[in-house]
Predict the structure.
Amino acid sequence: MHIPVLKKEVLQYLDPKPNENFIDCTVGQSGHAIGILERNKPNGKVLGIELDKDIFDKLNLSKIDRLVLTNDSYTNLKKIVEKHNFKSVNGILFDLGMSSWHLEESGRGFTFLKDEPLDMRYDTECQSLTAEEIVNNYSQEKIEKILKEYGEERFAKKIAKRIIQQQPIKSTFQLVEIIKKAVPGKRTGIHPATRTFQALRIAVNDELNNLKKALPQAVEVLEKGGRIVIISFHSLEDRIVKNFFKDSNLNPVRDNGNKKEISKSNKISNGINILTKKPVTSSQEEIKINRRSRSAKLRAAVKL
Ligand SMILES: C[S@@+](CC[C@H](N)C(=O)[O-])C[C@H]1O[C@@H](n2cnc3c(N)ncnc32)[C@H](O)[C@@H]1O
């Protein structure tokens, strides 16, 4: 069952009011979007963007009143807004990464807990690069770099070497066995394949670059006083959001007693004020119900 992460906190920071308009850049199974729609009645709309055609088709079949859907990438945010003539945007949400549907039902190899083909694409129509292509056709150096950069995997070199030795690799379980043999001893805390799977998914979908492309567009399309809320699930994404917020922050905040310089890199018209000094995380109660929420970090800002 799909449970939206940090739903209460998303609504608290987006603060939807009657008749306001919002964009959900990662509408997924529409959990957050429905929460917003309950608050911006009777005429407020949500523009929902979803890249995955399979998820999109399901959403589109069960048409929800005031939810305008588009099967596209949030990297095209400005164009999407223009195309739909979606005006007065009071809030924008990004709930990054994959959804529980990808893990549980997609059959595309997002999880190391199921034996599936190594695909990992969100966009199976227009995108050709798969995880199978990476592990079978990239050089050892390139694979090592992906595992290091996108998975922060300590054993990247060892895993990459074994991957090259064991090709061809077709399935998730085959890859898990390779990782287990490459990683010395037992690892505490996480499954030994966690970091490799995260790295491959990020590389396949170019997730970090997509986020970097989308954030400035999001601030640009927001109305003054509008809010942007972003939920990330690993430190690489959170760092991008944190740095983007810092660079766009127009309100000089006191930090270690020194006044920070007002960012000169951003046009005044696209300045923001950070609402979350530290990222908001899930409560113990939420983590108990939804394990995926344990790594969620929410950051929010308001456009000045
Ligand atoms: C964590 S889920 C969102 C869940 C959603 N908030 C809900 O309550 O159901 C993230 C979604 O973003 C989608 N996605 C990933 N990259 C995307 C992109 N570049 N553009 C649009 N959607 C994307 C994924 O397919 C996935 O469905």
Q: What stands out?
A: The longest strand covers residues 222-232. The radius of gyration is 20 Å. Residues 2, 4, 26, 28-32, 49-52, 55, 73-75, 95, 97-99, 122, 210 surround S-adenosylmethionine (CB under 6 Å). Residues 207-221 form the longest helix (15 residues).
